[in-house]
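Handout for the seminar on molecular recognition.
Each group receives one record of this type.
Step one: identify the two inputs.
Step two: read the structure output and locate the region that could contact 6-O-phosphono-alpha-D-glucopyranose.
Step three: write two sentences on what you found, then compare them with the reference statements printed after the record.
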Amino acid sequence: CERLEGRPLRQRLLVVANRLPVSAVRKGIDSWSLDISAGGLVSALLGVKEFEARWIGWAGVNVPDEIGQKALTKALAEKRCIPVFLDEEIVHQYYNGYCNNILWPLFHYLGLPQEDRLATTRSFQSQFAAYKKANQMFADVVNKHYEEGDVVWCHDYHLMFLPKCLKEHNSKMKVGWFLHTPFPSSEIHRTLPSRSELLHSVLAADLVGFHTYDYARHFVSACTRILGLEGTPEGVEDQGRVTRVAAFPIGIDSERFIRALELPQVQDHVKELKERFKGRKVMLGVDRLDMIKGIPQKILAFEKFLEENPYWRDKVVLLQIAVPTRTDVPEYQKLTSQVHEIVGRINGRFGTLTAVPIHHLDRSLDFLALCALYAVTDVALVTSLRDGMNLVSYEFVACQDQKKGVLILSEFAGAAQSLGAGAILVNPWNITEVAAAIAQALNMSSEEREKRHKHNSSHVKTHTAQEWAETFVSELNDTVVEAQIRTRQ
Ligand code: G6P
């Protein structure tokens, strides 16, 4: 990239996502403590040496006062983060409403809200208005910090309106947009009242990326069928302007997991866990407590397995880590009660005075504890009903070089396309099939496990998060920026 005098040597990358990779806790009128979360995107970008990344996003807290906002902005600047301040009402309508109650379930094939999830059409409209308003607020912050030569990478379904807002302000800005969820079949997308406006807006970007080829194909079909545009080998064409559309499957920083397993405290924890579950096979689920993860289906399949295989009843334990998420959305609250009820019933049915078959935890584990748990696991169970990629399956594989455990993986997770040959693929809706897969995994020979692990491990180690980010940004840099952006719809 061309460098201007006085500018940093590396190209600046403005990463815009709904959430900043920090959790901020207010300690006083003008003081904050920040905890950086090392999620997939963060480690991907930390590994990219070519660019100097800045993050723009919501800090996840309501800061109504100017003193608090100034102090938080200053604290975040040290972490290269720039906040977008959203008030409670916007968060309610944009984040809880349009993002999590409408787009999230729709993109995961769970359909649009029924009457109990959305009282009137008016509330859909006001949620969409808040969504556009919030996206414009993100755009205002990007515009304020943008310098010529920067690349702007927008993330996820929260910010589908952002590419249009940015390009209308500055048509020369390099803008990429990446979706971390599935993009559903155009027949699902077309039920969305704001279907065309959102598609047009995403098409304002120079490069549009998805985890799998199928999601990219669905997006192109939606543009051709709903908007009547032309699909080309490159992407989508609208009056001579082509928006490039492609698949960029994300990965993880597998080395970080492998290094963690060598730490003495992790090895001690591994020993403790082995002692704790001595004589029993360990099955593991790690999910956000979200309806797309298929947690009730997983637990019911485990119950069926115990029912059909009395031999295994006191020789296997299912550890389910269910991280609470979006707890203000009623659907998530209902799911929590439903899962608790099923777990209680099964533990009552198959538990003994000294042991229960399911250990269910409603909380997250820190990174090192999670690594130790992955390492002692015999069978990991990923039963997503739909999932953009599912990096838990990658993390499990990264921690299994010694044990060579088995991965049972939903065919509806993006990861099924990359880890399918090494995993046992299942339809999570078919509880009998999942129960049979559990039996197959627990009885699998060590030769077979080794062969399957080798396949998955080589994929996870070579398709890293860093490579994903580098490929996306370099392709974005290679796209031709249009001087003109047509305002659509
Ligand atoms: C999914 C989305 C992310 C989101 C994450 C956590 O992975 O693709 O964009 O950040 O869930 O959800 P939350 O609503 O807590 O940000």
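Reference statements: Residues 390 and 406 are 16 Å apart (CA to CA). Confidence is low (pLDDT under 50) at residues 1-7, 483-489.
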